[in-house]
């Protein structure tokens, strides 16, 4: 399931269409619009580990959570390390060393920050359990999304066939050129040679989608963002395109009851 890019003014956040049917679910992916940060973080920088002023990030986060209707909800996130460890979050806070968070606690959002890597949001409506996953190329090779589903199965009894998954805005296949040492770690289906440079480029969205399907999610219960952090960098932050001097987006999910 793929949303079509909007031609209207870009909002402060976008909500995955796949989750719209679930009234008790809060889910959102921020854009770079609607904040107070100056360049190069303009304007809705939600990343704590940037050179932006902490007061700017705090105000931006306040605006984001207000706009998505989550002012009264808790929030759990982590300092991400491009690993594959999964945290079962039971209370708000900022943790260290995890690239995926799961929870079934009502009123608690989990989220990940990104600026080219893939944010993945998962929902198990049977058990009201959710997950937020940060999958860069290392996490994708390490099959972090599969490990997250396994953690949900162990913790909540989740059946992947019941789950819905959103693969969010990230660097697109045409822009993610890599060296052969990275390309060789992906199946050939997810690597294409760029005609202009003759360098391999990796499709992280497709690779993670295939992992979700292999783990048991039905294909029609997976949505891919149609946007790219590089191609649409007027609306999203791209670490690669902006040479590291940029902000971060947030992708969050949680059940309110």
From TrEMBL:
One matching Pfam family: Cu-oxidase_4
Record SUPFAM superfamilies: CNF1/YfiH-like putative cysteine hydrolases
GO molecular function annotations of the record: copper ion binding; hydrolase activity; S-methyl-5-thioadenosine phosphorylase activity
The organism's place on the tree of life at top rank: Bacteria
Keywords attached to this entry: Hydrolase, Metal-binding, Transferase, Zinc
Catalytic reactions of this protein: adenosine + H2O + H(+) = inosine + NH4(+); S-methyl-5'-thioadenosine + phosphate = 5-(methylsulfanyl)-alpha-D-ribose 1-phosphate + adenine; inosine + phosphate = alpha-D-ribose 1-phosphate + hypoxanthine; adenosine + phosphate = alpha-D-ribose 1-phosphate + adenine
The family this protein is said to belong to: Belongs to the purine nucleoside phosphorylase YfiH/LACC1 family.
Protein name: Purine nucleoside phosphorylase
Organism from which the protein derives: Spirosoma sordidisoli
Lineage: Bacteria, Pseudomonadati, Bacteroidota, Cytophagia, Cytophagales
Protein's gene: pgeF
